[in-house]
């Protein structure tokens, strides 16, 4: 229980949810026959959108935050560093914690947990914004 409280504070502690409407993640849930669906879909989308970021989220059974909170906070964080070309892919997993991966140009990052995912935003956005032809 202490961990969930810490995760919420770390992820949403600076967020004024009462003052800002949450973005809905309901239409971002997907299903497919290739498992895990969100990793495949995020990778494929990012390959077709080389200067964008696919964000795959596997919601946990005991996540300390909601899907709408994850989408709202990460969208805002990416916007702060100048990245607006992002696409979310959600699915429900049977693991207790939520896991989030980023996809740039068809590649996939490691799986991040709620407590450390926001630290990755600036680095991932910089990688996606790189227009060097060697990385296209």
Tags for this model:
single chain, 136 residues, alpha+beta, 5 helices, 4 strands
What can be said about this structure in brief?
With 136 residues, the chain is α+β, with helices and mostly antiparallel strands.
Description:
- There is one protein chain.
- The protein is α+β, with helices and mostly antiparallel strands and 136 residues long.
- The protein has one domain (2-135).
- The chain contains five helices and four strands.
- The chain has a four-stranded mixed beta sheet, with helices on both faces.
- Mean pLDDT is 83; it is low at 1-10 and 12-18.
Gap from first CA to last CA: 44 Å
Radius of gyration: 14 Å
Q: Tell me the major beta sheet.
A: 4 strands, mixed
Q: Record the strand order, biggest sheet.
A: 2-1-3-4
The helix/strand order is: HHEHEEEHH
- The DSSP helix count reads 5
Q: Strand-residue fraction?
A: 15-25%
Low-confidence stretches: 1-10, 12-18
Helix content: 25-40%
Total number of β-strand segments? 4
Mean pLDDT: 83
Number of domains: 1
Global shape? globular
Based on secondary structure, the structural category is alpha+beta
Structural topology:
Layout (H helix, E strand, L loop, with lengths): L1 H11 L24 H12 L4 E7 L7 H14 L5 E7 L6 E6 L2 E2 L5 H4 L3 H9 L7
